[in-house]
Amino acid sequence: MQTRVGLWRRMAALFYDAFLVTAIWMLLGFVMLLFIEPNSNKLVEGLVQTDLLLDNILFILMVASSAAFYIYFWTRSGQTLGMLAWRIKVVNLKGNLITPVQGMVRFFAAWPAFFMLGLGYLWLYLDANGDTIHDKLSNSKVVLLPKSSRR
To answer: Are 141 and 131 in contact (CB under 8 A)?
Structure first.
């Protein structure tokens, strides 16, 4: 039986991954500037007004790129780069890699779990197996790998 991972190790891996996702978002912003006029923002009465369509396009690209980042790594190796550093891995309930559908459920359930005061993450303290809400919804678990598993 593999040991489930606690909150602090999960948050540390998420913090590591936040740097990578932020870099991807910065690259997206730069690429968008290549296709739109840099002066599309206006200063009106001391407030910056942006184009609503461009804002929505950028938001959709940010969500899609971060979803692609996590789902790609979870389905290929079970680990993002942050998870690799903290020796944790996402697997299905049988211990195999998760499917893309499980990855999508996991990703889109994790956001509300985090932004609702972390209640979805804090659920692991109440759950008998130590799973979060998005673990339950995606039929997956996050396990601790032994120190000898570093590749």
So the answer is: yes
Element (H, E) at 43: strand 42-44
Could you tell me if residue 2 is inside a domain?
no
Q: Of 141, 144, 130, 132, whose CA–CA distance to 86 is shortest?
A: 144
Domain span holding position 36: 7-149
Helices (H), the chain: 7-35, 52-76, 81-85, 100-115, 119-122, 133-137
Rounded distance, CA 71 to CA 29, Å?
Answer: 22
**Regions in the chain scoring below 50 on pLDDT:** none
In a domain, 78, yes or no: yes
pTM: 0.87
CA-wise closest residue to 9 among 121, 116, 94, 109: 121
- H-helix or E-strand containing 141? strand 140-144
7: its two tokens: 């909150």
* Total of domains in the chain: 1
**Residue pLDDT, tens place only, 44-72:** 888 878 878 888 999 999 999 999 999 99
pLDDT of residue 149: 66
Domain presence at residue 32: yes
